[in-house]
Amino acid sequence: MQIEWAKNGAGVRYQAIVLLETDLAASWRLLSTTEGLRSWFPELSVAEFKVGGSLAFNSTNTEQIAMPIYQLQQESELGFGWARDRVHFALSEETRDGTTKLIFTEEVQNVTSHTPRDLAGWYMCLQRMQQVSRGEDTTFDQALFDRLFEEYQAKLQK
């Protein structure tokens, strides 16, 4: 996974480039269906999959937060609100070997003490998505998360 950062005033643009080992249609299903989303991000589900619709973030058994969809292009792009920020997934097929390139971007408007945890969490979710694309069981490496959190915290304080 390749990570790129760009400071933007009080915010930051975080981008991860990931190679998914599935074709474009299968990669799109990981983003566009509840089953696909939950395979790599168990708290997410589809509420209404259209621009102006939303994904649902199930933070507890009783609390569900709507994440409004602001961009949607079939088998290509998905953008939705993430708290006060926005996340965007762009897919393109790598025709030479049947894999799919995913570019994930989070536009953070204002860096807070929670931002490093949020970005480390997205890294871990993208890693899980990559595992799903390989047909592997998903894992969560707490030591890696902790290391990323500390690394991101230091990077964002500069």
Explain this structure.
With 158 residues, the protein is α+β, with helices and mostly antiparallel strands. Helices cover 32% and strands 40% of the residues. It has helices spanning 24-32, 34-40, 115-133, 142-157, and strands at residues 2-8, 11-20, 44-48, 54-58, 64-73, 77-82, 85-94, 99-108. The protein has an 8-stranded antiparallel sheet. Strand 5 (64-73) and strand 6 (77-82) form a beta hairpin. Helix 1 (24-32) packs across helix 2 and helix 3 (115-133) packs across helix 4. The chain is globular.
Task: Please summarize what this structure is.
The chain has 158 residues and is an alpha+beta fold.
Which superfamily, in CATH terms, is the homologous superfamily?
START domain
N-C termini distance: 23 Å
Q: Which second-level CATH architecture applies?
A: 2-Layer Sandwich
Kindly state the mean pLDDT as a whole number?
Answer: 94
- CATH class reads Alpha Beta
Tally the helices.
4
User: How many beta-strand elements?
Assistant: 8
Order of SSEs:
EEHHEEEEEEHH
How many domains in all? 1
Using only C-alpha atoms, the radius of gyration works out to 15 Å
Q: Main β-sheet, in a few words?
A: 8 strands, antiparallel
CATH topology: Alpha-D-Glucose-1,6-Bisphosphate, Chain A, domain 4
Indicate the structural class.
alpha+beta
- Uncertain segments are none
Widest β-sheet, arrangement of strands: 1-2-8-7-6-5-4-3
Share of β-strand residues? 35-45%
> Fraction of residues in helices?
25-40%
The rough form would be described as globular
